[in-house]
Amino acid sequence: MKCPFCDHEELKVTDSRNASEANAIRRRRHCLSCEKRFTTFETVELALQVHKKDGRYEDFQEHKLLNGLIAACRHTRVSPDQVRSLTSKITSQIMDLQTREISTEKIGEIMMEHLKELDNIAYIRFACVYRRFKDIDELVKAIATLNEKDIIKNKSE
Length: 157
Description:
alpha+beta, 6 helices, 3-stranded mixed sheet, 3-stranded antiparallel sheet
């Protein structure tokens, strides 16, 4: 790494800590030449391929997971912090599988598991898009998978 001010290569790390994003490390650096300080963020580059329904492959992109969760949780009691935390949790679970490729179906199922625990409305919204319900009967079946205990728990919160 080079100093962004003078291109000098000798830098000293003065502070390291986890960034607000779960998969990043914030490092405060000090250039030994020009004495200026700057901050860098290091993230893990995931070498995971996602197998799409149409047969294509693409790199795993956590922001797509986040965007899907944001859409499902919009106008619910789920906070933005909970969505970011859930995104990190799901990403970690996917990485724990220690595989080089994963299907969009598997990612969707993992997301639905977590959404079902978090919020019934977010779960049903995601299921509607993910499963592409063709009629009301499919929607009713999805709602029926929510057990009565979960529905009562969500009503009381």
